[in-house]
DNA sequence: ATCCTCCGTGTAATCGATTCCACGGGCTCA
DNA sequence: TGAGCCCGTGGAATCGATTACACGGAGGAT
């Protein structure tokens, strides 16, 4: 592959001049510029990003470590992150932690070794020493969706409290009283926070959240399945199950179907995170929708601010309830017949 | 960030010795090794991958350019690719082309600029000059899922011919005769191939595939929606719609629902690509399943073979039909009551 | 005792870019 | 006319690693 030397030789100038042309430095004569451009063209030359990064100490690359690529929420996030980053002149390298702290650390380490300019993380656990060290050492970093408390890193996330309250009000209005939740790992903020919001909302309606109605999931479909089976085996099973993410909702649906039960007739189901498929499940699933695209874009902007020396800002956007029919009959649409 | 010089200084040896320890070169004395290791530890030193890549001319990184990250098929592919690559000691950088040739070229160019060791592509179109040049110039490359005919690049893909034949037989047995397809872009191999397989299978049953029953989609949900609306507006609409990928099936479902029709009572639906959600749609969707994980792993193995100087092999794996109930009553399960 | 070999180590070249500094020539201004 | 400046350019240092080569000393073979 042609290097800057080849271009310089072909154009009959020094490498310094070639570099100046490539970086549109003002003081290059039109003739020299033309000759260099011709040589670049003739050789099909492209600057070596590796060499450039070594010299300039910047890679114009962002690392994004997410908890699970197979989760549509995170793929949508990844997509919006890449889009915004591209618009700002950065590339993105995605690392999939698969909800495993080891794997998360592996990716963070690899990304750091590559000297990415900044790191976007949705932490799988309460904080690996590696990540804390990196943050302390001054690596530009921003948390998205989930975060680690007590670290001085901006956080971009959705606040689901109000939406959870709306959900509980909706369920209460439909006459449901025994409400269960499948939570995420307590080590994640979204894991504990959603349970807290749920518990608090229940309290407002003078409802309790017994320990048996809390499923301990890990944001994966299988754990949703297992938690739901445990609920169904209870002497008094819940009337509605609220899954703290879409994959556990999928698992819950599997379990419910395996038991020959119908939604919402026998048991209701709601989920945190809305995805296009929820419109077409049987029945359509009531969910709490996050402004995912906005989240991804805001996170990139915060990170790039930090990288380029501007003060980064934490951002919190509201999530909102999308009522469908998986928890019982919604208010009848005008014109529809029962 | 500490460099190899700092380590050398702290350990009281030369950078050469540090490098030897780091690369487990045999001729280093135990004492020197111990001192270096201690220094590495003390400084929290990590080798700069950028510098290393510049010198060794290899990045131990693979590029993966896929057509659409939001498509669950491709995210599953991406995941298996990353897993296998990691097992072989490579990282993966994903580029999302979003079915846009320009964007595809953007990512290929960026990846090439970063001097990735090899490229895995699922081409969005019939072949950009950029990609053809890269292949000709000797960049290790492997096509996954889709490919560009007439280029000497190994292809790893699923053959859906038999499964499509099975699907048509299944539909025929259910009494359906007017079968339509929503195809992908003709510029993609999977776009044209699936139509061909469908047409051929129809011919075996002495059925025609009129032009009006061919929808021209682009593998995105919206095009599935539009094609389906066109089908439904026909004087004699099809009895079954076969979508050439899962997103267009989602769009088709949207359109069908918008018209107040029921599946499969009013119209049947089948899809190429199977995804977990198809089990839970209303009704569960009959689909052709590809061995996605195997495909991703085989593609990485082929690419790494090519990179490391072993002869790479093209691989074709069979897809298979998964019958559910979206095209009409499946054979009754023993014990079920009508 | 001498020579050869091998081992552990350091010096320095190298990868492909960017950028500081110096230099020569033409211009302006006094 | 001469001093000073700006402009275009090239030489060379530099980023952080790897690695060919040289070298001194220890040990074995003759």
TrEMBL record, chains A, B:
GO terms for molecular function: DNA binding. InterPro entries: HTH_LacI, LacI/GalR-like_sensor, Lambda_DNA-bd_dom_sf, Peripla_BP_I. Residues 2-56 form the HTH lacI-type domain. PANTHER family: HTH-TYPE TRANSCRIPTIONAL REPRESSOR PURR-RELATED, LACI-RELATED TRANSCRIPTIONAL REPRESSOR. This is LacI family DNA-binding transcriptional regulator. The keyword Transcription applies. Keywords: DNA-binding, Repressor, Transcription, Transcription regulation. The keyword Repressor applies. Pfam families: LacI, Peripla_BP_3.
């Amino acid at each position: 592959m042609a290097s800057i030397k080849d271009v310089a030789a072909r154009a009959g100038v020094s490498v310094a001049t070639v570099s100046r042309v490539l970086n549109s430095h003002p003081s290059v004569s039109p003739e020299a510029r033309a000759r260099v451009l011709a040589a670049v063209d003739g050789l099909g030359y492209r600057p070596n990003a590796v060499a450039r990064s070594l010299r300039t100490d910047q890679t114009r690359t962002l690392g994004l470590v997410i908890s699970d690529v197979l989760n549509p929420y995170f793929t949508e996030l990844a997509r919006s992150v890449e889009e915004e980053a591209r618009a700002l002149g950065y590339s993105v390298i995605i690392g999939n932690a698969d909800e495993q702290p080891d794997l998360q650390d592996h990716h963070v380490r690899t990304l750091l070794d590559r000297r990415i300019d900044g790191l976007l993380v949705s932490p799988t656990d309460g904080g690996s020493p590696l990540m804390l060290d990196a943050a302390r050492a001054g690596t530009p970093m921003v948390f998205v969706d989930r975060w680690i408390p007590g670290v001085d890193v901006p956080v971009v996330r959705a606040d689901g409290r109000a939406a959870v309250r709306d959900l509980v009000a909706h369920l209460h209005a439909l006459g449901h009283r025994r409400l269960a939740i499948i939570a995420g790992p307590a080590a994640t903020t979204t894991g504990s926070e959603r349970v807290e919001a749920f518990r608090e909302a229940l309290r407002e309606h003078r409802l309790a959240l017994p320990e048996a109605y809390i499923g301990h999931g890990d944001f994966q479909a299988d754990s949703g399945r297992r938690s739901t089976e445990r609920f169904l085996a209870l002497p008094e099973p819940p009337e509605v199950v609220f899954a703290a993410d879409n994959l556990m909702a999928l698992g819950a649906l599997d379990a419910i179907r395996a038991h020959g039960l119908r939604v919402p007739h026998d048991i209701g189901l709601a989920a945190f995170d809305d995805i296009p498929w929820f419109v077409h499940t049987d029945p359509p699933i009531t969910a709490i929708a996050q402004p995912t695209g906005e989240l991804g874009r805001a996170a990139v902007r915060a990170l790039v601010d930090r990288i380029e020396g501007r003060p980064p800002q934490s951002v919190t956007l509201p999530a909102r309830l999308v009522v469908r029919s998986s928890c019982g009959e919604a208010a009848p649409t005008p014109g529809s017949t029962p």
